[in-house]
Amino acid sequence: MTRRLGGPGVAAAVLLAAIVAITLLAPLLAPYNPDLPDLFNALGGATAAHPLGGDALGRDVLSRLMYGARTTLLAPVLVICVASAAGTTLAIVAAWAGGKVDAVVSRLLDVLFSVPGIVFALVTVAVLGPGVPGVVIGLAVAYTPYVARVVRSAALRERGLPYVAAAWVQGRSATAICLRHLLPNLRPIIVAQSVSALGFAVIDVAAVSFLGLGVQPPTADWGLMVKSGLDSAMRGQPLEALSAGLLIALVVAAVNLLGDRLGRQS
Amino acid sequence: MSLLTLEGFGLAVPYGRGRRTLVEQVDLTIGRGEAVGLVGESGSGKSMTARAVIGLTPPGARVTGRIVFDGAEVPSGRALRRLRAERIAMIFQDPRAHINPVRSVGDFLTEAMIHNLGTPVRQASARAVRLLKEVGIGDGERRLRQYPHELSGGLLQRVMIASVLAVEPDLVLADEPTTALDVTSQSEVMAILDELRRERGMAMLLITHDLELAAATCDRLAVMYAGRIVEDIDGEPRHPYTRGLMRSRPSLEEAVHRLPVIPGRPVAAFEAGEGCAFGPRCDLAEPRCRETRPPFVRGVACLRAEETA
Amino acid sequence: MRFLAKRLAGLVAVLLVASFLVYGLLYLVPGGPMAFLLGNRSGTPEQIAAIRAQYHLDDPFLVRYAAWLRDAVTGDFGTSLVYRQDVSALMASRATTTVFLVVYATLLIVTGGVAMGLLAGLRGGRADGVVTLVSSAFLATPPFVVGVILVIVFALGLGWFPVFGAGSGFGDRVHHLTLPAVTLSLASAAFLARVTRASVAEESGREHVETARSRGLAEGHIVRRHVLRNAAIPVVTVAGLNVAGLIAGSVVVESIFALDGLGSLFVRAILQRDFAIVQAVVLVLVTAFVLINLVVDLCYSALDPRLSRQ
Ligand SMILES: Nc1ncnc2c1ncn2[C@@H]1O[C@H](COP(=O)(O)OP(=O)(O)O)[C@@H](O)[C@H]1O
Ligand code: SF4
Ligand SMILES: [Mg+2]
């Protein structure tokens, strides 16, 4: 595994693991209650007590960042799990059935793919109302073709290999062949493609929250913190916006790097 | 005086921290209007040698020895470009890959005339049509407007030959010009190339792995193995490798085609050990063959050449 | 020609499906369309009657859809519940800002992204390393983070650009929309730079380029006529698809810079549950994406003779 990822890949994985660990242990590690206003710390700069200062309500920015990774990361992970499952199923069905089914599914995926992900999220949010569920559903639909297109062509290639014909001759059912043989062989591609989609999903989820349509205040969330931080910056205190923004960029960079490494392997 | 001379030519490419030798100690001469065949299995360094003549070496490659063309060492920069543009032309193995797929056949044929020789566009097109006729493609005007994917491999290779004729070079480097073609067009294309070359008095270095084809076309033959010339054929082949190639060629008399292919895998120069590079595949090998590289004596590099002659 | 006709038919089909979904979504909402349209407003009987009339809520679903679609095709998207104005008029007055922003950003990605990619692909070495590093950083930074950083540095800090607004008149517009356009374009430009780099590097190594070289053609000529010409095929495709991304991204960018464009209208409509506007904007966006895709496909087959002529 280490050899496969290479030095930078391992560094990215360690960074992501550290962020996940910190946010899980936030109740133990965070110096303050993330939701507790403190008028003396409102728009405060970096001090020993508040290393990253306070937001407009005086809540401790560092503590909010520690808690904030939860929604920032969990929602995109959910999106990708759903999209990978749906995408893989569609892809295998299309590749296996071939013919008309394949043509229709491929065309559908192409059309979905041509619409940017955030548009789906905005539409579902319009129907279901602002909040995480709408965002996750919309983006899951949006990312399904991202996984499905790549997996479909890999599955087509795999399907032509002799071992599939051999299993077929031995009288195995199509479902059994797909689950026992095809799926395990496609796994590296599915994982690589899902990880690289995750980077985009983190950006999209945070962007929708930034628009005020995703995670809702007062929950601590990085996307929301960039938004409230922008107001604080107008009033002279840019620390909140900058720290939350850079963290998002760092996480996306790490995820992209991992996806890149995994993609090279498969 | 010979047109092209290679003296102790060698080529090594960067590999990891060191280098890998791909060709070494190659001596070769081609006279004006003469056709010389360079024969050997794939990986033996034939293409590298031919490309080096017009300076098309891989990035970072180190060339040793001398390549002398028409009395002067092959130059670099502007002079090299003029040499390529006017005096030495190359025909590549796979015309489909070696002709730009998004430019029309006409573009391909006239490009060099227009940009290197300064021919006006209309004249260049008219000339291209005549050249196509010479290589056996009748409806030239229509062909000029077509794109490479609309032509068969055989036709494309004729287009490539026509583009070389347009330059009227002194030397043609033909790198396996028929290998990628189907059997029927192979002999046609080879016949066209040979005939037109003779008419114009161009010299040719014909690279092929087909000894019989080379023998039928060329005035002289050199056999290459693992980056070295192992035999300059003069009469009966004496090197065990050449004999192996003879025996493995398709034969019309025998009922079974391509019978005894030389067993084993050909090696590249850097893979060869101390002794004779052909040793591991040679059925005449002796213990001494493993000790030193057999020297090139009287046209052959084999320790047992005298006994088997 | 047949190709074009086929593509146009496909386009119409996609738009029909999209419009059906957009219209039908209204009925998926818990409580039905009435509850949704009113949202948390308690309508007066007249208002409720007006909504029933506007949305033809008493007709069967398909009839209502057909009526809505007929109006939509003629540019009539109904009346906004919040603004009490024609949706088309609301959109028209805001479209200028968005179009200006997207065109500005397109120019930036095409010039900047392609230039960076060419530099990296043709020069290699150090230039390649720098471009690759910078493009990874830009790709990883979400547009809204870029926007916020640009605001903090260039508007609030250095005061070179205004923080808000779209400006009026061409020069003033350019001044106002520079930071938004840069924000919108950075990630796409980075992506385009990568694609250009990869494509140029790949095409430079092609066999036919070796042929051109063996014919003694000048290096500049080879790069222009063979490397760049062939590399343009994927670059144009990706650039086109990126423009679709820019349109979606403008929603976010307009929100950062408080620009009164279609995107901010859209976000506000979602928050205020002003569904007539949501439907109209989504339909316009989908139409734009589908049209861009068509244009990309046409460019693609114009650039690659292997596709257009068989
Ligand atoms: N660009 C290159 N860089 C490094 N090694 C190469 C390159 N091209 C070919 N080789 C190696 O050089 C050897 C000779 O290749 P080549 O001249 O193409 O042989 P031939 O034309 O006789 O088949 C082979 O072992 C091949 O793997
Ligand atoms: S030198 Fe020895 S091994 Fe090499 S070809 Fe001659 S007989 Fe065979
Ligand atoms: Mg070769």
TrEMBL record, chain A:
Keyword field: Cell membrane, Membrane, Transmembrane, Transmembrane helix, Transport
Cell location: Cell membrane
Membrane topology classification: Multi-pass membrane protein
Taxonomic superkingdom: Bacteria
Start and end residues of each ABC transmembrane type-1 domain: 69-259
Keyword Transport assigned: yes
Gene3D superfamilies documented for this protein: MetI-like
Signal sequence bounds: none
GO cellular component term, pick one: plasma membrane
Parts of the chain that traverse the membrane: 12-30, 73-96, 108-128, 134-151, 189-215, 241-259
UniProt xrefs under PROSITE patterns: ABC_TM1 (PS50928)
Gene Ontology biological process terms in this record: transmembrane transport
Keyword Protein biosynthesis set for record: no
Family: Belongs to the binding-protein-dependent transport system permease family.
Protein name in UniProt: Peptide/nickel transport system permease protein
Organism, as annotated: Nonomuraea pusilla
From TrEMBL, chain B:
Keywords: ATP-binding, Cell membrane, Membrane, Nucleotide-binding, Transport
Cellular localisation: Cell membrane
Protein's membrane topology: Peripheral membrane protein
Highest rank taxon of the organism: Bacteria
Protein name (record): Oligopeptide/dipeptide ABC transporter, ATP-binding protein, C-terminal domain-containing protein
Annotated family: Belongs to the ABC transporter superfamily.
Major subcellular location class: membrane
Organism whose genome encodes this protein: Nonomuraea pusilla
ABC transporter domain location: 4-251
GO CC aspect terms: plasma membrane
Signal peptide: none
SMART domains named among the record's database cross-references: AAA
From TrEMBL, chain C:
Chief localisation class: membrane
GO biological process assignments: transmembrane transport
SUPFAM superfamilies: MetI-like
Gene Ontology, cellular component aspect: plasma membrane
The protein's name: Peptide/nickel transport system permease protein
Pfam families on file: BPD_transp_1 (PF00528), BPD_transp_1_N (PF19300)
Spans through the membrane: 99-122, 129-157, 177-196, 231-257, 277-300
Superkingdom of origin organism: Bacteria
